[in-house]
Specification:
Blueprint: H1 3-43, H2 71-76, E1 78-86, E2 97-106, E3 112-115, H3 117-120, E4 125-129, E5 135-144, E6 149-153, E7 175-180, E8 189-207, H4 219-224, E9 231-241, E10 253-255, E11 261-268, E12 278-282, H5 283-296
Length: about 300
């Protein structure tokens, strides 16, 4: 092999080595990028590897509608409710005042508000705070414990009433927002989810102050007093949702993606191992009861 041939072979080897080096660099860079994305996603609880390219960034649009455009519409129509109930006199401490909290939905601009019967049962005083932080004393118009619906009235005008929808037309999987006063402290809160299921049947225990089954002369009442009469087991047909529901949300609204009322929130699962199990009375049922309570003071199923 002459000198020229040897030089050509050396050049070829040099070019090949350079190509291998470049290829290795590219592989390492790609691997580092994928590994970095994987680490970030793993840190946030995901396990999908994603890589980026020089093309336009791709974005994933959530199927859940942004509530910012309808938030005010919903929160303005929901009120915070606080109640006080007086226990009967007891041996140790005498009569005591017991406080409670819940939510309500404005039915009309002149002050009619729909809530749960269990929110106001036994209450000697009912206070309502609207979204503009004005507080009113409410009177009980009527309640139907077997349906867990009550109507109260405040002396006010120009209120932002909810837009009532048709609960017969809602579908499983559609967006749902729960609005209320969780923990009796965080009024005007919105949580989001979906309609998990329709036509669920649940049984709830509601203190019924109209019952006379509790004996005031028993030893428990004499020593500890009581605030309510015996509890009543009530079977209800409800909407199931995974929108977060907490104590204090009772009587608040379940809304669709347009801010239209589709249900009155009334319960959540009490099982500590369960998550995303909230329930609401369909608005068609609630409104039928409420209208009868306003016009007649009673409701007959």
């Amino acid at each position: 092999m002459n000198e020229n041939e040897m030089n050509n072979q050396a050049k070829k080897r040099s070019i090949g080595s350079a190509f291998i080096v470049i290829l290795l660099v590219l592989v390492l860079c790609f691997g580092a990028g994928a590994g970095g994305a994987y680490l970030v996603l793993k840190t946030n609880g995901a396990s999908v590897i994603t890589t980026t390219t020089s093309t336009a960034t791709q974005t994933t649009t959530s199927s859940k509608k942004d509530a910012s455009a309808i938030a005010k519409k919903m929160t303005d129509s929901v009120v915070a409710i606080t109640t006080e109930a007086m226990t009967t006199s007891n041996f140790w401490f005498g009569s005591q005042v017991v406080s409670g909290a819940g939510s309500g939905v404005i039915m009309s601009s002149d002050g009619y508000i729909i809530t749960n019967a269990h929110v106001v049962n036994g209450a000697s005083t009912i206070k309502v705070t609207t979204s503009d932080e004005k507080t009113y004393t409410a009177k009980l118009v009527g309640k139907y414990t077997q349906g867990d619906i009550a109507v109260i009235k405040i002396n006010a005008t120009g209120l932002s009433a909810a837009t009532f929808g048709d609960s017969d037309k809602i579908t499983q999987g559609q967006t749902a927002y729960a609005v209320g006063n969780p923990e009796g402290t965080f009024s005007g809160s919105i949580t989001s989810g979906i309609v998990s299921a329709l036509n669920r049947t649940i049984t709830v225990s509601i203190d019924d102050d109209s019952s006379s089954s509790n004996n005031d002369n028993n030893q428990y009442s004499q020593y500890f007093g009581r605030t309510q009469s015996a509890s009543t087991a009530v079977k209800l047909n409800v909407i199931q949702t995974d929108a977060a529901v907490s104590p204090g949300n009772s009587g608040g609204g379940l809304f669709d993606s347009n801010g239209t009322l589709i249900g009155i929130v009334n319960a959540k699962s009490s099982d500590s191992n369960s998550e995303g199990l909230g329930f609401a009375i369909p608005v068609n049922t609630a409104l039928k009861i409420a209208k009868s309570l306003i016009s007649k003071g009673t409701y007959t199923a």
